[in-house]
Every structure is written in structure tokens, then in C-alpha cells.
Design a protein that fits this description.
Layout: E1 3-5, H1 7-15, E2 20-25, H2 31-34, H3 37-45, H4 50-65, E3 69-76, H5 82-97, E4 100-105, E5 119-122, E6 126-132, E7 138-144, H6 147-163, E8 165-166
Parallel strand pairs: 2-3, 3-4
Antiparallel strand pairs: 1-7, 2-5, 4-8, 5-6, 6-7
Helix pairs in contact: 4-5
Length: 176
């Protein structure tokens, strides 16, 4: 039902899409990003290092121009922690490039049955799961082409997508 894959195969599958790649993010922070100098720079100055994102913006624009759908749901706690404030500050430009992003408050989506970890649905044919350790570091990747599992992940994503707020309309709550 599941096959473990390497990071290289994970990346190749993402890049090899024919029609669509949809991601649902559940982590409360991504240590990989938090360890990068651009995160510390943002914490100190509030400025985003757009130079870092140019390759992603160009890639998203190319996928959009090819007619491919890229959708992402960020499941967050509110008020946002520093990591998600950092992410929010850069999402508008990425969203405009074609990385269509919606936000969903974790507490408000508790009625939606979803896989317990980040996942991608690729071309409606396969689902890839990202696994994380207690230190929030990536610990592995698995993939499945099982039609029932792909259908369940697709349904969960679509339900959450319809329930989530488009980035341009999302205003993070600051109260608690």
C-alpha cells in the first residue's frame, strides 16, 4: 500500500506532474526553514529575502503557464507563531505567481477527517506523505497509488480547500 521513497524520488515526482500538485501542510513550524539565514534576517528586520524565492516564483509561473494546478492549504494555529508570521509575509507574492494558497485555522477544521501528516496529491493518481520527527525535521517520504487512499486524500483536500480562506482574503487573528 505504501512505498518508501528517497528525497530525490520525492522531488522528481513533484517536478514530474502532468496536471496538478496539491499540498496540505500541518506542521506547527518547519525547522528546515527556521534554520536558514533568511528566517533570522526576517526576525531581525521584518524583510523578506526575495532573492531566495526567485527560482520558486519562476517555477510557479511556468507551471501556471503550462496550465498546471498548484494548490496549497496551510493549517495553522491562531494567533500565528513567528514561523507562520514569516510564512504569511511571503505568501502573497508566491500566491500571485501561481502557488494558490489557502489558510485554515486548525481548531475550526477539526470536523474534517484528514491524514495525520503533510501530504501531496499528484495528478489525482498518487498521494505522497511527508513524515517528521519530534525535532520537526523531515524523517522520510512515502507514496501510494492505492485508488482508495488517493480518493480519500483528494476528498480531504477538496473539503478543506472549500472550507479554507484564500490567501488574499485571510487576515490572521492576533487575539487569544
Amino acid at each position: 500500500m505504501f512505498q518508501e521513497i528517497s528525497q530525490d524520488e520525492f522531488t522528481a515526482r513533484l517536478r514530474g506532474i502532468e496536471r496538478s500538485r496539491w499540498r496540505m501542510e500541518f506542521q506547527r513550524a518547519y525547522t528546515v526553514d527556521m534554520e536558514m539565514p533568511r528566517y533570522k534576517h526576517w526576525q531581525e528586520t521584518g524583510d523578506i529575502d526575495w532573492e531566495y524565492h526567485l527560482w520558486w516564483i519562476e517555477y510557479m509561473q511556468r507551471l501556471r503557464d503550462e496550465g498546471k494546478s498548484v494548490r496549497r492549504i496551510k493549517v495553522v494555529d491562531e494567533p500565528l507563531n513567528d514561523y507562520w508570521k514569516f510564512t504569511y509575509a511571503q505568501t502573497g507574492r508566491l500566491n500571485a505567481a501561481g502557488d494558490a494558497t489557502r489558510w485554515c485555522n486548525r481548531q475550526e477544521m477539526s470536523h474534517i477527517l484528514v491524514p495525520p501528516t503533510d501530504f501531496y496529491v499528484l495528478d489525482g493518481r498518487e498521494v505522497m506523505f511527508l513524515h517528521f520527527g519530534g525535532d520537526l525535521q523531515p524523517s522520510g517520504y512515502t507514496v501510494s497509488e492505492n485508488p482508495e487512499l488517493v480518493a480519500a486524500a483528494t476528498s480531504a483536500f477538496n473539503t478543506a480547500w472549500d472550507f479554507s480562506t484564500p490567501h488574499d482574503d485571510y487576515k490572521p487573528r492576533n487575539d487569544r
